[in-house]
């Protein structure tokens, strides 16, 4: 079955129009004719944007509309690439203008042409203007062609009343309160009892509220409606309520329509009134002082005002009245609930097996049917705990009496089940349909991850940022903050689930949700592991249309594996997985042809990872990837980066974590003025860093700085956006406290972890008094959570260490500060959980001074301390 991928371009168009309106674009000196054509793009895009809503609504039922959207999507990507090229050239010319002429430059052209114009007449600039003009002509022609097709498709403008019909492909069938008496009820007994307990059956409510709201939350197909039906029809429930009503809400949360349906269900009379006030008054009269049970099934509304209006008549009910709400969205539950959510997780294999066996053959399980047992239990695994999947597959298998036919179903994809037999597809697709446009794009990108793949939340947000999917908002200026908020929203809607490993930042997608992501992403995302692409030619055809690609990193990735990439030009993502290294000692080898031949032809790459490969060097051609925002070389064997990396002016993320052989960074690293994340943790051979880091004002992540012949500590002054962890190595090279004061660590509110490291060599060049002044001047923000001080040479610790204003400081380690004769007073730190003191041999005794509290009140010290460790202390 060929399934049409859904295309949603609204968020994409918003970003394109913002870029076209950007002042930076028009600060670039280009021939006048180019500007006039760019101006026409805005009006043309606005005309196309006006019909997007109608096109997106009708693409499932109208193949011609879907094909038109595919062409429009291709054009949008190409247009975005061109605008990015213009912005990058503007940035390059501005940087050239800011740099003084090089004395070694043999050309006299720069001396003869005024500084304001010189960069516009270089051969490179002239060639750029010529090439860009040709590209603009091509895109203009395609825009005009799509505008003509728009008219032929009779698409309706938003301002003329929106889409002419609601798409039916994703609509959910109405639910009823009746239970299937013969299907059984598996695995939800505890959930049912928990809700019955919350309903306080047979007793009056002690709350001031006249009614309680109990949300049942979970992903599509997990059994929320079935659980609500079981409660609704429970005999004890029937005897405890005067009135009952079951309302399937689904898409539209229309206060009048829902109130009418509640009135009709409770009164058994048609509602002849079409005025909300009259209907609500009538409903209130009916339920006044009566204990009622109302089930609102499949609610999507996140508008508290709508819920507030709908619920006003409920206040008249008798104490103990209950509203049960089923929803997939935690946000919906949060605006309605009055008691904690009942969050449904997937069922275990035993319960799923019972559901599948019952719907397929009417059996309890497969134990008495060995011919079906192995295949049946394998199909159970495919259901991944979703009762709806088991029921849907059971319905399909009901007509298949031969075990071999069951094997055929097992070997096919659940996604390929014939329409009409597969309720899982529309059930999950409805969740996607209800996403805001900008979240649809983010979710579809996750189709790059294979099934059961654990991805890192922070890594995914960096990739979203690199791809240009995130836009700053009024409440969240930083793109990363926007990304984390979007991630949490997808998590709350059950698109993601936490890893069972317990790692705080690791997540994965349910198999069927992963299928959904692949379905909606269509041809834009390509996975080299996709078995549907049976041969090289099919893979190449798919890659020629794709913009994002991923593949599982193998121990030996030879040239044959990448044959399908031949001729590919427009990829934005080249992502081997996992993006982090699973075992630091396990080498992965990549053919040189990928690095030297394939990557240079991918001129539109935004995200490139070579993480974990046994790569020794990058070619100079890496500097030609001018669109690159994300470069991950973590865990490689690279000793140094080519200087051309500093020409990647758009680069936002440079990950060099655990590059054990790395000895230096490029001299002009400071030219990367858009860099936001520089991770060089685990690079022990990196003994110095170049000057100019202070120019990278956008930098948020800087895992460490190495002070010495090049970089000075005062270069930290301009890095006001630093977050997370920072290690300052080589503090013994700081010869005066002024530079330390200029670093202004106190202002860096986002720093949560700080490591201060001096040399482990306590020779005669060390000056304890200067080091005392330096550490005093490096007072960090009081938001600090973790502090480590190593090899400090002063005789006492700074006065700020132990100040109770550091209320979040939970971990302190003081090691090899051998000249210190006393310990800081740390007992007043309210959150300190772990304290390690090692190698401070100048301290002879430990007493009340460490606690900071005199006896007999010493027991009040360290209110949160869990671990106290002393190591390598003088034994005297």
From TrEMBL:
One of its GO terms (biological process) is defense response to virus. Keywords: ATP-binding, Coiled coil, Leucine-rich repeat, Nucleotide-binding, Plant defense, Repeat, Signal. It comes from the Eukaryota. One of its GO terms (molecular function) is ADP binding. Residues 714-839 form the R13L1/DRL21-like LRR repeat region domain. Residues 1-23 form the signal peptide. Residues 14-99 form the Disease resistance N-terminal domain. Residues 448-517 form the Disease resistance protein winged helix domain. Residues 38-89 form a coiled coil. Residues 191-356 form the NB-ARC domain. Belongs to the disease resistance NB-LRR family. This is Disease resistance RPP13-like protein 1. It comes from Escallonia rubra.
